[in-house]
Amino acid sequence: MNTSLVFTFIGADRPGLVECVAEAIAQHGGSWQESRMIELAGQFAGIARVQLPQQQVPTLRTALEALAQQGLQVSFAADEAAADSRPARQSAFLKLIGNDRPGIVREVSRALLQRDINVTEMSSNISSAPMTGEPLFEASVAIDLPAEGELGNLEEALDAIAEALNIEIDLDSRPL
Q1: Partner of 145 for a Cys bridge, out of 17, 30, 135, 149, CB 3.0 to 4.6 A?
Q2: What digits encode the pLDDT tens for the residues 62-78?
Q3: Angle between the N-to-C axes of helices 17-27 and 57-65, in degrees from 0 to 180, rounded to the nearest 10
Q4: Which CATH number belongs to the domain containing residue 162 in this structure?
Q5: For the residues of the chain, what is the DSSP string, one character each?
Q6: 93 and 150 in one domain?
Q7: Which domain, by its residues, includes 110?
Q8: Mean per-residue pLDDT, 92-104
Q9: What is the pLDDT of residues 125-136, one digit of tens each?
């Protein structure tokens, strides 16, 4: 019987990090299902889900933990079955842009939490505004709302945050 194993890893960026993780997975009969990885400030981090025979899980865990000798820290999700038992939800997408300032992520994430909205993916960066060169905060956020979620209430809250912080927040509720 196959099962899923979810884990994260982080280490100083260098060629071969993904290969050493992939090699351990392949040696234990695992199949790479999905992942997100990024290099940021000289560190390389990722989260991955692999599928493998249940009896191989303990030895794969040991093999991945042994990658610490190569400078890679690995952590495992506490409950592999939890991802399959989530209730039905609807997806939407947020795009934020505006002059950088403290509190943007805090205010938006607070509004989402108050409406039981889950952030499923987020990427952000600081760039220079085209005309002024001022720091410009940009973020793309994928969210999951309860199946019966009310988008109108969310739009009102995001509009209030956008006005208070002088940023632009666009909500796209089309299926992703």
Answers
A1: 149
A2: 999 999 999 999 999 87
A3: 160
A4: 3.30.70.260
A5: -EEEEEEEEEEE--TTHHHHHHHHHHHTT-EEEEEEEEEETTEEEEEEEEEEEGGGHHHHHHHHHGGGGGTEEEEE-S-TTGGGGPPPEEEEEEEEEEE--TTHHHHHHHHHHTTTPEEEEEEEEEEE-TTT--EEEEEEEEEEEETT--HHHHHHHHHHHHHHHTEEEEEE-S--
A6: yes
A7: 89-172
A8: 94
A9: 999 988 888 999
Instruction: State CA 87 to chain mean position distance.
Output: 19
Max Cα–Cα distance, the chain, nearest Å: 59
User: What's the confidence (pLDDT) of residue 175?
Assistant: 54
Q: How far is residue 8's CA from residue 76's CA, in Å, rounded to a whole number? A: 6
Burial class (CB in 10 A: 0-12, 13-18, 19+), 174: exposed
Q: Do residues 93 and 80 both lie within one domain?
A: no
- Does 151 have pLDDT greater than 80? no
Domain C-terminal end among 84, 111, 128: 84
Same domain? For 80 and 97 the reply is no
Any residues with CB less than 8 A from the CB of 163 and at least 6 apart, and which? none
Of 68, 84, 100, the residue that ends a domain is 84
